[in-house]
Design a protein that fits this description.
Shape: globular
Strand order of the largest sheet: 2-3-4-1-5
CATH superfamily of the largest domain: P-loop containing nucleotide triphosphate hydrolases
Low-confidence stretches: 128-132
Strand content: 5-15%
Number of domains: 3
Keywords: ATP-binding, Heme, Iron, Metal-binding, Nucleotide-binding
Radius of gyration: 23 Å
GO molecular function: ATP binding; electron transfer activity; heme binding; metal ion binding
Pfam families: AAA_16 (PF13191)
Helix content: 55-70%
CATH architecture of the largest domain: 3-Layer(aba) Sandwich
Largest sheet: 5 strands, parallel
Protein name: ATP-binding protein
Distance between the termini: 35 Å
InterPro entries: AAA_16 (IPR041664), Cyt_c-like_dom (IPR009056), P-loop_NTPase (IPR027417), WH-like_DNA-bd_sf (IPR036388), WH_DNA-bd_sf (IPR036390)
């Protein structure tokens, strides 16, 4: 069939043509938006799950929902080698700019932007460097708020000021943070502390984060009350009905159909993981001669889909690991199957090593985001079917 008309989109964070199976999370977030805008107490939101389940896509969709209601929104992606101040300041600047033109008090907006500028400038300790670097905010910095140098104090003060800026306007501000688990311990603590203060004040500001399955443990290690501070949504593979809809709806818009056997074969291949659904759907479309798409088309296309996944989804991650880290992951794959989790002691025993001697490899893999600590003494792959891939790597 015509590859130009191929509707499927296997891309990192790229919205699929049919966002299937996430209605529960979207409906729950609509309630959060309504309650916050009405001045009612509500919790910020955390999305957790393996890579490839569509966390970033859902995060972007939640942001779109907020924007459609007139909210100011900003987004950032956390990185382990970067502090929180600069990217958060840029995201919040974006959020405020989007509502500034309609704000009833322009002077109040300028005052807040001055505080935001002072917050951002504290990211640079050296005064000379601060004088050379400016955060792109065209008002003078306002001293005395959110500029102490302590990220937790400053973030609480900054978001409290942001809440006062939009209070009574009927809208709110939303900060959307992807890969939240990659923030440093101090920045995680600051996020928790600020959200705690916002919830107590019923301020119209929320944080929506997305991260790997161990994100709740990361937050809990920072602040014990974080278990009650956020509304957690675990994002997992799609059930059969939703996976079928993700394939059928885009195809029908192109006047193309699938046989029932083709849909069953695609579900077995993709295992319900949204990224895999798109990858196999795209390859199958290109391999099929005409409609309806058959199970034979799926089998014909499978090697192409698997090759693409091996290079772009699995291989790029595997190449980042050192030889010792690759040995560690292969031992995990032999013990844990596709994802895990598996005992760290069992991995060491599989390698014929003492647990302490393989800790550097484990810690390196965690920092690279290839494995995560599911709970104390256990680990799992962050990527679905990674164990299957590793068992095929020579």
């Amino acid at each position: 069939m015509d590859p130009v008309r191929n509707p499927y989109a296997p891309g990192a964070g790229q919205r699929p043509p049919e966002l299937a199976g996430r209605d529960k999370q979207l409906d729950a977030f609509d309630v959060v938006l309504e309650r916050v805008a009405a001045g009612r107490p509500e919790r910020s939101v955390m999305l957790t799950g393996l890579r490839g389940v569509g966390k970033t896509v859902l995060l972007n969709q939640l942001r779109s929902s907020a924007r459609s209601r007139g909210w100011g929104t900003g987004k950032l992606e956390a990185r382990p080698d970067q502090g929180l101040r600069r990217p958060l300041a840029s995201a919040l600047h974006m959020a405020v700019r989007s509502i500034a033109a309609e704000h009833r008090n322009p002077e109040m907006v300028d005052d807040f932007l001055g505080i935001l500028k002072a917050f951002a400038l504290r990211a640079t300790a050296d005064k000379g460097m601060r004088d050379r670097w400016q955060p792109g905010i065209d008002v003078p910095a306002v001293t005395g708020r959110a500029d102490s140098g302590d990220i937790e104090i400053d973030l609480v003060e900054l978001l409290t000021e942001a809440g006062q800026l939009v209070a009574g306007t009927g809208v709110g501000l939303g900060l959307f943070i992807d890969e939240l688990q990659d923030l440093g311990a101090d920045d995680i603590s600051a996020i928790c502390g600020a959200c705690h203060e916002l919830s107590q004040e019923s301020a119209p500001v929320i944080v929506v984060g997305a991260g790997l399955p161990h994100l709740p443990a990361v937050l809990s290690a920072s602040k014990s009350y974080s278990e009650r501070l956020f509304g957690y949504h675990r994002i997992d593979r799609l059930p059969r009905e939703s996976a079928d809809r993700a394939l059928i709806a885009p195809a029908e818009r192109e006047q193309v159909k699938f046989t029932d056997e083709a849909l069953a074969a695609l579900y077995r291949k993709a295992d319900g993981y949204p990224y895999f659904v798109q990858a196999y759907g795209k390859a199958t479309w290109d391999a099929a001669a005409d409609s309806p798409i058959t199970a034979e088309d799926v089998e014909l296309a499978a090697p192409a889909a698997e090759e693409e996944l091996a290079v772009g989804f699995f291989g790029s991650r595997y190449e980042r690991a050192t030889p010792a880290e690759r040995d560690y992951m292969r031992a995990m794959a032999d013990l844990a199957g596709d994802e895990g989790p598996v005992s760290t002691a069992a991995v060491a025993a599989e390698l014929g090593r003492k647990p302490a001697s393989v800790s550097p490899a484990r810690d390196g893999l965690i920092k690279k985001g290839l494995i995560y600590s599911a709970e104390r003494g256990t680990i799992g792959f962050t990527v679905p079917h990674f164990g299957r891939y590793l068992r095929g790597v020579q």
